[in-house]
């Protein structure tokens, strides 16, 4: 029985609920939209210096790593305001807008207290119970809410003997799962999955990464519907989310289970598998040609599932029998730079467990399954303020010494090229393999990026779909016409970029 007397007040504009508790005090529940709105004023703290100097008619989009850190800082400021005590607790539903079955509790205490949080399952075995170190300021993650219904949550203060000395109980309601993701999912090919308390399932088709409890019920999912690659668990409660859209899986996000994006990595060749070299260390990522990308992921997930964190030259890469040549790269965790690259590397050895291949009843495709461990302690800490939130091989335009030797610029036509600005980075998505470069024609000079010098991920066999990510920080103040090379012709796209001082 939930110890609630009654709900009072409802600010429909902010979606604010206040709940009286019979142990005393009020619990305030806020929606994800409240965080999104409140975080806008903090984005300027994290933006790179060049961002505000660019004006353009190209469609713009904010970096996930920027908006995520601004939201995290907004929540941290709420906690540091000391407005929210244990008897006036703040609960934020889906605080980062990425994980709908999560919430975050914020409150302070006069003394250092350990905290125990329980998300009650339908049985004792499916309850999520976590304890947190003694502190005065508390960020308590709530994971494992049931979809489309109310879930009971208990938060307790623990004394020096580990006994509960005060508690608050409340319930949180969530929306139903997206269409196509059943609430209960049966894993047909069990292998070692039956021994997992919670199972993370990812990859295999266009689907949402999700976590199942022992009863096969979805207790977590990432709101992003990902193509093929999905997510890859890392240590300390983090994972790599491979974004196939920007462009062709060359963009990876370092995320946690609350949906916070800490850093964005750019990798030239595109990525279709990733692990850590050592716990918390550099990233080992697998890329390859189109044959490698289209090969069955079970070559990685099930055929040889032990993990070896060393790189050994002269050893055939796992899955090489599929006919696709693999490229394995070690990526520096802090800078995104390539430390080592090899075409003859084994990521897998005799020891450890990485993932297993599973089939799901009623859902097509072969998926990867991992034993899921939510590192709650890391989730209870604020992200480190980081303006260097995008790292890797971002290309910059090169100044041309003379005008390109072409008869003239072809007028704007319906070339199948999509442009997008993410802060001070221009993304180009050409589906026409004839696009060989991008040219920035200013009033006083011309800058250029060749397609061959930017991303060449495993894409279509005709080269179509290869993308470009171009950092515009080197462009001097000027107004530029954005043109693309179509074979030996230079076409004006009608796009303009003005770089201000």
Q: Could you explain how this protein is built, in words?
A:
The chain has helices spanning 32-38, 64-80, 290-294, 298-301, 376-379; strands at 4-11, 16-21, 26-30, 54-56, 60-61, 90-93, 102-119, 128-143, 150-158, 164-173, 199-202, 210-212, 218-221, 231-233, 238-243, 251-256, 261-266, 273-276, 283-288, 326-331, 338-342, 356-360, 363-371, 390-392, 398-399, 409-410, 417-422, 425-430, 435-441, 446-450, 468-471, 478-486, 489-499. The chain is mostly beta strands. A hairpin with a 7-residue loop joins strand 15 (238-243) and strand 16.
Structural class: mainly beta
How confident is the prediction overall: mean pLDDT?
A: 80
Number of strands: 33
Query: Roughly how many Å apart are the termini?
Result: 63 Å
Strand content: 35-45%
Low-confidence stretches: 1-13, 289-324, 348-353, 458-465
Output the number of helix runs.
5
Percentage of residues assigned to helices: under 10%
Indicate the radius of gyration in whole angstroms.
25 Å
Oligomer class:
single chain
Global outline: globular
Largest sheet: 8 strands, mixed
């Amino acid at each position: 029985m939930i110890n609630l007397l009654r709900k009072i007040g409802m600010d429909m504009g902010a979606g604010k609920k206040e709940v009286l508790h019979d142990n005393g005090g009020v619990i305030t529940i806020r929606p994800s939209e409240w965080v999104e709105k409140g975080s806008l004023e903090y984005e300027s703290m994290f933006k790179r210096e060049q961002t505000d100097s660019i004006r353009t008619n190209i469609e713009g989009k904010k970096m996930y790593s920027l908006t995520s850190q601004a939201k995290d800082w907004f929540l941290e400021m709420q906690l540091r305001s000391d407005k929210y005590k244990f008897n006036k607790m703040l609960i934020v539903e889906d605080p980062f807008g990425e994980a709908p079955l999560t919430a975050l509790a914020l409150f302070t205490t006069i003394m250092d207290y350990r905290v125990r949080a329980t998300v009650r399952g339908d049985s004792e075995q499916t309850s999520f119970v976590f304890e947190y170190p003694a502190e005065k300021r508390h960020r308590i993650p709530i994971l494992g809410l049931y979809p489309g219904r109310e879930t009971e949550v208990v938060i307790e203060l623990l004394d020096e003997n580990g006994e509960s000395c005060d508690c608050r109980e409340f319930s949180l309601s969530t929306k139903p799962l997206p269409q196509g993701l059943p609430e209960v999912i049966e894993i047909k090919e069990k292998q070692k999955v039956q021994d997992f308390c919670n199972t993370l399932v990812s990859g295999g088709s266009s689907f949402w990464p999700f976590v199942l409890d022992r009863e096969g019920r979805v207790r977590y999912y990432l709101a992003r519907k990902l193509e093929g690659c999905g997510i890859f668990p890392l240590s300390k409660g983090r994972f790599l989310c491979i974004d196939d859209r920007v462009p062709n899986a060359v963009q990876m996000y370092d995320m946690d289970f609350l949906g916070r994006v800490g850093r964005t990595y750019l990798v030239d060749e595109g990525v279709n598998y990733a692990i850590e070299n050592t716990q918390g260390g550099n990233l080992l990522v697998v890329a390859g040609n189109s044959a490698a990308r289209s090969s069955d992921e079970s070559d990685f997930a099930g055929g040889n599932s032990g993990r070896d964190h060393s790189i050994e030259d002269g050893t055939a890469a796992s899955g090489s029998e599929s006919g696709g040549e693999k490229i394995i790269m070690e990526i520096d965790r802090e800078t995104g730079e390539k430390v080592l690259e090899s075409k003859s590397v084994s990521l897998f050895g005799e020891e450890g467990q990485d993932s297993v291949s599973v089939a799901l009843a009623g859902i097509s495709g072969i998926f990867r399954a991992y034993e899921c461990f939510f590192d709650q302690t890391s989730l209870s800490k604020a992200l480190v303020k980081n303006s260097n939130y995008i790292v890797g091989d971002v290309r910059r335009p090169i100044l041309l010494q003379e005008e390109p030797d072409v008869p003239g610029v072809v007028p704007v036509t319906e070339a199948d090229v999509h442009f997008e600005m993410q802060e001070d980075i221009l993304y180009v998505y050409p589906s026409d393999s004839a696009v060989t470069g991008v040219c920035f024609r200013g009033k006083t000079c011309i800058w250029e990026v060749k397609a061959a010098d930017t991303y060449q991920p495993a894409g279509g066999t005709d080269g179509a779909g290869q993308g470009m990510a171009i950092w515009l920080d080197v462009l001097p103040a000027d107004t530029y016409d954005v043109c693309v090379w179509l074979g030996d012709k230079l076409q004006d796209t009608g796009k303009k970029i003005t770089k201000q001082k």
